[in-house]
Design goal:
The complex is a heterodimer. By secondary structure, chain A is mainly α. Helix content of chain A is 66%, strand content 0%. Chain A has a domain of 73 residues. In chain A, helix 2 runs antiparallel to helix 4. The radius of gyration of chain A is 14 Å and the shape is globular. The model of chain A has no long low-confidence stretch (mean pLDDT 97). Chain B has a 6-stranded mixed β-sheet with strand order 1-12-11-10-13-14, sandwiched between helices. In chain B, strands 3-2-4-5 form a 4-stranded parallel β-sheet, sandwiched between helices. The N and C termini of chain B lie far apart (61 Å). The chains are: A mainly alpha, B alpha/beta.
């Protein structure tokens, strides 16, 4: 990833960390479901692809993704100039970094408690 | 992020892992304060107990319930009335508190008979209230009274009453948060699914983790009603016992304070398939996002947008009046749990305040993750601080104001730092668009209080100026502002009423055509 894309990835990630709550569920498996659900739909929406909504949980992910996409387009207008492939790569790298901060690299000792 | 060691806590080395400074370019995987652990011996914590967390924070805001503590009268007295969780039924739950008044003889001979007599006496004294929650305390837990059995006996003898038992004695966790957990799980295990509520809308939510502090819940429910959304239950501010027994019938759980109530949302998701949507009810932008998300979930986002546009146009010029005057003021954001992340970013963005420290008394590491992610670089994050650490932080960081509870707040006043009550508010409600302006007004009044400035003068040694008149808050705040701000014709101070809540109780709402009928037409 070049420096420009890296900086853009940090901007998008920082926006999520500062403004969203969906990535901070209390258990690692829920965080995984949330990150996969919202980031997956974010990529689809940014690429103007159809989004499947089959369950109430899907709908929640779509709602969070849609608001995120609207904000991304509002605050980071450069996103509209990217190709679909670039968007996919960018969102994928945000997703990986988000998983690291909130799941795999998290220092939260409660993440793997078996009960809520 | 390096751990921060307080000078005053060098003799308690375990404390070092409970504070970090958010440095440039550093992230959550580098350091995170420990949290939700037993208080370290030798440090004087400002936390509450698990009984307090269950009763005072979560149980008692339920409005149509006799709240009976099975224990010494001091337990119930100390958790009575201090949090301003009002209700629309003449504040029954604030006016009255009940205890079995256990004494030494009951510890020796048992207190089950006392409990039963107290329950019957309370129901007879309050014949219009048919619901009761019994809170276990350390004393009744240690002697092993079978509260559930007594509750069953009373329900058998009085068929029109229903009783909920909350087994959360004071020692049942490191802090009040242990009690939040226990009452969440007890409620879903004992009561959810035992009542079939009336469904009046196509769009039905539970509003969870909202305690109606000075009317917050009523402000938010007003927005939902304007959207045609039925708030089936509120967990628990201004909430009704029977409505909360029907939580299983909602389509969506809208979760505000994840710290105190995410447990029941997670269980409702697992047991009943109801998804959880986390929202922020504080601040124009986060609140707008929250309403829009609820609207999008049900496909009625146009209704949400109409409210957002109307409220923003009405209140934004007033918020901005305060923002211009609060810009750059330093704040220590020291609440109990969730407000450290609900407010950390938005008081910076929308009021211009610089958050120099966040702390949490009873939060978990998950709260610190959110709070640290949201605050600016350089902020000092502290878990479960003691009084000396709080003093040291204030002396080092020199905040213009702190938002905290009344215990540390009174300490702050002694060193001439103004404080606002983050738990019970000053002139709330602080949720909603108008509420956010009321919060800004309270901050402004605290920071620029002429009395506060005078308090720095020591009449025993300082020269008291006698050649100047009394300064007003506006004279202090506007001294260095440009004319386009001070003479602005668009910006204005708060113009709402003293009571911004009561009128909502008699308000009428638009009736929306049900989806099926609309489709048939």
């Amino acid at each position: 990833m070049d420096d420009v894309m890296k900086e853009r990835m940090e901007q998008l990630l920082d926006y999520i960390m500062k403004n969203c709550l969906w990535q901070f569920h209390s258990r690692s498996w829920d965080r995984k479901i949330q990150n996969d659900g919202v980031m997956g739909k974010t990529a689809q929406l940014l690429c103007d692809e159809p989004v499947e909504i089959n369950t109430p949980l899907d709908k929640c992910h779509w709602v969070d993704a849609l608001c995120l996409v609207e904000d991304y387009r509002r605050y980071y207008p450069w996103i509209s100039d990217l190709s679909k492939e670039e968007i996919r790569q960018l969102v994928q790298s945000v997703h990986e970094r988000l998983d690291h901060l909130t799941i795999t690299g998290s220092l939260n000792l409660e993440l793997n408690d078996k009960q809520y | 992020m390096p751990y921060h060691e307080f000078e005053c806590s060098k003799c308690i080395p375990e404390r070092k892992q409970h504070a970090v400074v958010k440095g440039p370019g550093e992230d959550l995987s580098m350091a995170l304060p420990l949290g939700y652990l037993n208080t370290i011996p030798g440090t004087i914590s400002e936390r509450g107990c698990a009984y307090c967390g269950a009763k005072h924070v979560i149980g008692s805001p339920m409005k149509d319930v006799i709240h009976l503590s099975h224990g010494p009268v001091g337990c119930t007295y100390d958790t009575w009335q201090t949090k301003r969780y009002i209700s629309d039924n003449d504040n029954f739950q604030l006016k009255y508190t009940f205890a079995t008044d256990m004494k030494e003889k009951h510890i020796i001979f048992g207190a089950e008979k006392l409990l039963k007599n107290s329950m019957i006496e309370a129901f007879k004294a309050m014949p219009h209230i048919k619901r009761m929650t019994i809170y276990q305390t350390c004393a009744s837990a240690l002697i092993g009274d079978d509260i559930n059995a007594i509750a069953e006996e009373v329900m058998e003898e009085m068929p029109d009453v229903d009783v909920f038992v909350c087994n959360s004695p004071g020692f049942a966790g490191p802090s009040q948060s242990g009690g939040h957990h226990k009452i969440n799980i007890a409620w879903i295990n004992q009561k959810v699914g035992t009542f079939e509520p009336e469904i009046t809308s196509d769009y039905v939510i539970n509003y969870v983790g909202e305690y109606n502090i000075q009317g917050d819940q009523e402000v938010m429910v007003d927005f939902f009603k304007r959207m045609g959304v039925q708030v089936l239950s509120t967990f628990t501010g201004n909430g009704s016992y029977d409505d909360l027994r029907g939580m299983h019938k909602a389509q969506l759980n809208v979760l505000e304070c994840a710290r105190s109530a995410e447990y029941i949302c997670n269980e409702l998701r697992v047991r009943y398939g109801i998804p959880r949507l986390d929202i922020d009810g504080f601040g124009f932008e986060p609140l707008s996002h929250s309403l829009r998300k609820v609207g999008l979930f049900f496909g009625i986002e146009d209704r949400a947008q109409a409210i957002i546009d109307e409220e923003t146009a009405r209140w934004k010029p007033e918020l901005d009046w305060y923002k211009e005057r609060l810009m750059g003021k330093k704040v220590c954001l020291w609440p109990g749990g969730s407000k450290l992340w609900h407010w950390a970013h938005v008081i910076h963005e929308e009021m211009g305040l610089d958050v120099v420290s966040v702390y949490t008394k009873f939060g978990h590491q998950g709260d610190m993750e959110k709070g640290i992610a949201r605050c600016e670089e350089g902020a000092l994050a502290i878990d479960d601080p003691n009084e000396l650490e709080g003093l040291e932080a204030m002396e080092t960081l020199k905040p213009d104001i702190i938002f905290t509870g009344k215990r540390p707040g009174e300490v702050a006043k002694k060193i001439r730092v103004p404080y606002l009550n983050a738990h019970a508010y000053h002139n709330g409600p602080w949720k909603g668009y108008e509420g956010w302006v009321r919060f800004a007004r309270d901050i402004y009044n605290a920071v620029y209080s002429p009395i506060h400035k005078l308090s720095f003068l020591d009449i025993s040694k300082d020269e008291i100026p006698t050649d100047k008149g009394f300064e007003t808050a506006t004279m202090l705040s506007d001294a260095n502002l440009p004319e386009e701000i001070t003479k602005s014709t668009t910006l204005r101070q708060y113009t709402g009423k003293y009571d911004s809540v009561s009128h909502l109780r008699t308000k009428t709402y638009p009736e929306f055509e049900p989806k099926l009928t609309a489709g048939a037409a």
